[in-house]
Amino acid sequence: MLASLTSIATLMLSTLLMMTGLGLMNYLVPLRALADGWSTVTVSVIATAYTLGFTLSCIVTPVLVRRVGHVRVFGALITLLTVSILFSALLVEVYAWLAFRALAGFAIAGSYLIIESWLNERVTNDNRGAVFSVYMITCLLGSIGGQYLVPLGDPKEMGLFVACGIVFSLALLPTMLSTAPSPAPIAEARFDLVRLYRRSPIAFVGSLLAGALSGTWGSLGGVYSQAIGMDATGGATLLAAVLAGGALAQMPIGRISDRIDRRLVMIACGLFGVAASLAMAAFGAFGVVAACIAGFFVGSVLYPVYALNAAHAADMAEPGEYVTVSGGVMILYGMGTVTGPLIGGSLMQALGPVGLVWFLAFIFAVYAGYAAWRMGRRRGKARDEKTDFQGATIPVLGADRVNTTVPPTEDGNDAPGSEPA
């Protein structure tokens, strides 16, 4: 175990710095937009550009890696991240920011894919869970640390943007100077949405809803904190609480879903999300402590639902279809992240900050309702027919990780004549 951690030390340092820059960037950008008088709808449209770039990168980055290798592509992507945030400070204009945010989304998704692919070549089945736990903690600490850099400066000035660019640039050094061998080329991810729907309608719909949930909060959570009267420190604490809830709850929820019908867990998560969202709507404006407690419980189901969908899709996949099915989950998630902020931003504009939380509650309700409806259509799988749950640190899975972290079942076929789950 110690040898495995040593072999990925430089990669984890690069990840920590990259996630610190990302946490700073994703909190700083909407604050600067609001400070310049841009509407919530405008901020949500800019966020949609980010998610479009993010989704496109899931398809393009494996091609680039096969052409020139992991290290070169990682260097290019981190450079694009740096350029995007520095240009955002130099040219504060809506149409320009659409391009800059799309560029940032493309770069960060590709970086995620490369890091996870790299990790998979450094671990074995015996230590995979432990190593990816270290990775999860690294991502969480980096994101939270970056958010707490915002109160140290003024979003209206260039200082925080330049600091973000410096942190991104520093993320290059550990990996570029490492003597560790590069991983093998990434296998191409294939996408077949029709096949995914046939195998698991609930994973198909659930992936769209999971993307809408995390895309909406991830893009507009900082805007929400400002709208309910929090300062930069309070907003960073709220965002950190949501992240912490997701990180702490993911594995317990997953392990429970390994032992009972996953759809029951999906229903429970959806209903809990409705209650937590309504609690945030009711008590979120009563101070930082109340908002953070509610936010923690929202996050405890907001992020884990993606991994539940991926696990259920794996349960239904035939031995030769796993990468195809998982690739479909990834793309549907990206589609959800594109549409969610647009609707959530419009509701915030019309109803105030509570519109965002009500929108989250509505998505959770649809998620629970659809899972319950599907349960009435077909019985669940037995425990020994299910794949083991794997926590998803981030919402996009690299093609290698899709192919290795959750091996297909030996018999994942639907029963003859039966309807998919």
From TrEMBL:
CDD domains: MFS_YcaD_like
Annotated keywords: Membrane, Transmembrane, Transmembrane helix
MF annotations from Gene Ontology: transmembrane transporter activity
Region Disordered, annotated ranges: 400-421
Cellular-component GO terms for this entry: plasma membrane
UniProt name for this protein: Putative MFS family arabinose efflux permease
PANTHER family: MFS TRANSPORTER, TRANSPORTER MFS SUPERFAMILY
Residue ranges annotated for the Major facilitator superfamily (MFS) profile domain, each copy included: 7-379
Organism (species): Ciceribacter lividus
Membrane-spanning residues: 45-65, 72-92, 98-119, 131-152, 158-180, 201-220, 232-252, 264-282, 288-310, 322-343, 355-373
Taxonomic superkingdom: Bacteria
